[in-house]
Amino acid sequence: MQSCTFSFSGSGDVLVMQLIFSAALLVFSLLFTFYGLSTLELYDPIGRPGPGYFPLIIGVLLIIFTAVNCIKDFKNFKDFKGYIADAGKLSGCGGSDQTYFKDSAVTLGLITIFILTLEPLGSILSMLVFTGLFLLYFNKGKHLFNVVYGLMLPIGVYLLFEVLLRAGLPKGIFDY
Amino acid sequence: MEELFSNLSFGLSVALSLNNLLFLVIGVVVGMIVGIFPGFGPAAGIAILIPMTFGLEPTTAIIMLSGIYYGAMYGGTITSILINTPGESATVASTLDGYPLAKNGRAGPALVMQAIASFIGGTIGVVLICAFTPFLANFAASFGPSEYFLIVMLGLLLLTTMMGENLLNGIISALLGFAIAIVGVDAISGAQRYTFGSPELIGGIYFVPVAIGLFGIGELLNCLYEGQHRQATEKLKITFMSKDFWPEAKDYIESKVTFFRGAIIGFIAGVLPGSGATIGSIMAYSIEKKVAKDPEKFGKGEMRGLVAPESANNAASAGAMVPLISLGIPGSGATAVLLGALLMWGLQPGPLLIVEQPDLVWGLIASMYLGNMMLVLISILAIPLFVKFLDIPYRLVVPVIIILCVIGTFALHSSIIETWMLVFTGILGFGMKRFGYSPAATVLALVLGAMAENTFLQSLIIGDGSLRIFIDRPISMFLSCILLGIIVVTIVLRVRKMLTNHGEEGSSAH
Fold first, then answer.
1. What is the pLDDT of residue B165?
2. Which of A17, A54, A138 lies nearest to residue B229, judging by beta carbons?
3. Does residue A145 lie within any of the structural domains?
4. Is A2 part of a structural domain of the chain?
5. Do A110 and A134 sit in the same domain of this protein?
6. What is the reported pLDDT for A90?
């Protein structure tokens, strides 16, 4: 196995993710600035700074800094790709630590389902669905524990927010 | 001195009510638990638990939230010592000698000494708060908008420069916070900005869902990404009945000056905006090692190497309260969340708070003293119990955190839009955490955004559009020079580092 002689700040996947993140911030900065410019007045009628003045400063600074970051990340990614092509090898360089992107993505998906069901199903049922699905995926095989924990946690949170704090949680179609 | 004691005794009369004491205990215990779970700092703990304080009196709520803040400093060290995993960044320096002490079979004495050091640091911090807060509040009473704007900028600049390599990312993080803060009605012209016609956005983007998303969901997704949920838990057994649990006389004697030195360094670091407990604890450790006659013992299980950062990080938490209370300017993510909580209750921290709300200010300060007393007892007597929390697999903690985040956010205003904002900022927080941005700078800028904009525009209006206003008055001039100095020094250091790196690469190529 060829050893890695060139140092990068991450593996290929990480660099792509970093580039996407930087690019997303640049796009946000551009949209923020141009939307502000098109909808807000820079000066008020007597020539004093108006509602668009401060957003323009923030927007311009954001564009400059996110663009610099984007260029930096793109260069880093290109250098990495160039090195991989030269070495003819796709592994062994940087980012050797194991990561669990799938687990983060699954959790994010479950949070999305939780929020989507919060109003239609009501707080208790949506919490039960979320906890059940979460434990089914992350705590496989421990059925009895999962059932007990999956019931106690939502009920405990419901009692805390609805009974003790009277937070007014959504009741859903079953009206509880 | 007499005034100091009368203020403190007034504060004690407020803090010693049964209700406040009860919520103080809840706060410090929750804080300790928050500190124990790695990757979860006090900012996340406070943000997630804000919705639960809505039914409380503001003073009680702030006492509880502050309890979480400094309780986390105690809790964070338990994991630093026992499993070499700091519960939060301010306890990183405690791993340097704390873990070797545990490996040498001195986990018990290390845990007791950290509790005592934290208590001494916290107590000295509280005494210094009593002395400095009224002084700074009086001094700040003469500040105009230009001084306030410069202090906000100074805080953000210090916070971002402390990030070292990622200065650019730190600045972007702060600018994102300002951009989010702009949404809503402009305070000066009354015009709607970035509301896209939505009535829910007219009041602006509420800081709590953003803070819970960035610190809570973002941190959690990152911990899952790093596989913390797949790590085996370590079964540890510690009992205070054992003889080996207690420190020896030598430990106290050798550390007697360290307790105080660490506390003073930590307090100063805490008062400086953007510096805080992490920098304070690292500085205290480095200075302790430098002044020691036997520096070679550090890193191998030296008690002074644990006492210094522990005393410092607790004093720094107290120190961070000084600019928060007297200027209304937080220096860290956790104090930014506390400021947001104060604003939520209609309280405006700043020079007038101490005059208009003395029961809140002195009650809070006295509660910190009481909280430290409780924490030293809890830390020592309940260590075996808290160690049990380390037996809980992280994958079982995750659903608790998520449910509290989602239900807590919804409970704020029964708004599903704010709940979705939690998801969006959670993803943003995850990306920020992974790629070296600073969620703390974003929250700080979000909380201070309105103040920064208003003071900036007021300064421009007063100065007829000229930037000279920022150097006209002596304090503004002083603050501008510091700002400029930090920028210049940072750029020079970075250019020097780049040149050195290029030089090294060039010589290795030959």
1. 61
2. A138
3. yes
4. no
5. yes
6. 47
pLDDT recorded at residue B274: 63
Task: Quote the domain boundaries for residue A147.
Answer: 101-164
pLDDT of residue A92: 45
In this complex, the residue of B189, B403, B411 whose CB is nearest that of residue A167 is B411
Q: What is the pLDDT of residue B197?
A: 86
What sign for the dihedral angle of Cα B374, B380, B385, B386? positive
CA distance A175 to chain B (A): 16
Residue A72 and residue A116 share a domain: no
Cβ separation A100–B220 shorter than 8 A: no
Spatial CB neighbours of B187, under 8 Å, sequence gap ≥ 6: B450, B453, B454
Angle (CA) B345-B348-B352 rounded to 5° is 135
Closest chain A CA to residue B428? A21
Is B436 part of the contact surface with chain A (CB cutoff 8 Å)?
no
Structure-token pair, residue B492: 């020079």
Euclidean distance between CA atoms B69 and B365, whole angstroms: 13
Q: Is residue A173 part of a domain?
A: no
Q: How far is residue B453's CA from residue A6's CA, in Å, rounded to a whole number?
A: 45
ipTM of this complex? 0.87
Element (H, E) at B184: strand B184-185
- For A61-107, write each residue's pLDDT tens digit: 999 999 999 999 999 888 887 777 766 554 444 444 577 889 999 99
CB pair distance less than 8 Å for B171 and A65? yes
In B, minimum Cα distance to A40 occurs at B193
Q: What rounded mean pLDDT belongs to chain B?
A: 86
Give the nearest partner residue to B193 out of A40, A61, A104, using CB atoms.
A40
- Comparing B389 with B299, which gets the higher pLDDT? B299
Per the structure, the count of domains in chain A is 2
A96: in domain: no
